[in-house]
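Comment thread on ticket #2218

A.B. wrote:
> Attaching the input chain for the structure job we discussed in standup.
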Amino acid sequence: MTLQDYIDALRRQWIVIVALTVIGAGAAFGYSRTLPSEYSSTAAVMVIPQRGDSTNELVQGSSYVQSLVQTYAVLASSPLVLTPVIEDLGLEETATQLANRVAVVNTLNTVVIEISVTDTDKERSQETAAAITDSLIDAVADVSPSDAEGQPAVRLETIAPARMPQAPIAPNTRLFAMIGAAIGFGLSVAYALFRRVLGTRLTDSADITAITDAPVIGEIVAWRRNYTILSTMLRSKDSRSAESFRALAANLKYVAVDRDLRVVMMTSSAPHEGKSSVSIGLAAALAESGHKVVVIDADLRRSSVANALQLEGSVGVTSILVGDVTFEEAVQRSESMKIDVVAGGATAPNPGQLITSHRLRDLVDEARDKYEYVIIDSAPALVVSDALWLADLADGVLVVARSGRTRRKQISAVLATLKSTRKDVVGIVLNAVKRNESSPYYAPDAPSRRRLRAPKQKSTRAQAKAGSASDE
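C.D. wrote:
> Ran it. Output below, let me know if you need it in another format.
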């Protein structure tokens, strides 16, 4: 993966990143508010030599004190000092527990010792700090070496008595919130990157090119959830979705420069990947360029083209194959899309046998003679074998994959399955690609939230044939 791939992965998951960052900060802030407030009171003492009548004695005393001050700092948190404090104040804890709340600091190159005590009660923290200071002074007097007169060689003098703390020092809610936000951000970034690296679903063309050499000749931008292919192509002609179909049609011409690519079969790996919508959109884009186009719904098990275009679906391919109507009688015109359509027809009990019949080849040959482009909508290749039989009738095959739905192993499997046919996979079309950024070159989707409704269109010959069939 390149740096741009990582950036794209983070951009796609920006909602997750923001949400987890906010949740982490909020959870840490809330947790910090449940913790008890802690106060700290600090006292300071100075270690002073007892005698210093001459300069020489002062220098010697200073050096002697410097050598002892670290020892006295350790002594301040020892049981010798803390046990009397616990007894005097009646604290319900051991010397070790009290030592965990005591911090003793000796500033470098000084003879000053600072004693800080942390407690949930600010008055008790002050009392404890003062008591430890007094106890340390007494302990130093007991353990300090004596001079010739039996007096301690050093003494401790309080230079800063313990004061009542004014504000709590903990918990630091701001620090907690920052740490929580950092943890949430880190987890969300890891989630986004791991999903990009280890994810099995296709999201963009880079995912496809990473597993196959088949070219991606189109990325169909997703349209509104409540829109259909019909309303998208009619009401949002200048939208990204409509323009992506035009780009697909143009790319189809480019890949057909050195071959006769007039009959194109459209398939996918599984249902609900949008192959029928892509078939209609591609046909409409070709018709918009002035070409004569027909769409043949050869998915006889779950035909959907007629319903998407609001046409009559009971007369179509199955009617032609069983000899009920001719090709010309089954053709319907979608005036709104400027394309001709052969619907799937009534559901047959033996669609597999109809697909393999010689009459289907005749149907495709007749369509080839009368139209510049023939788009065949086939069943998913990994579900049934219909696409393998239909591929032999086409000049090339387009495989539709749905962004965020189709898995990598599915696209690999469908390409491997189609290798058994004599027709090459012209390319892959990635459907339902999300594009959120705006551009002055594209118009937004139409504001209406209602689906476009139009009266059903049916060829006169198909109506007459259907009517006579119902009379019988």
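A.B. wrote:
> Thanks. Noting for the ticket: The chain has three domains: 3-35+171-197, 39-160, 202-471.
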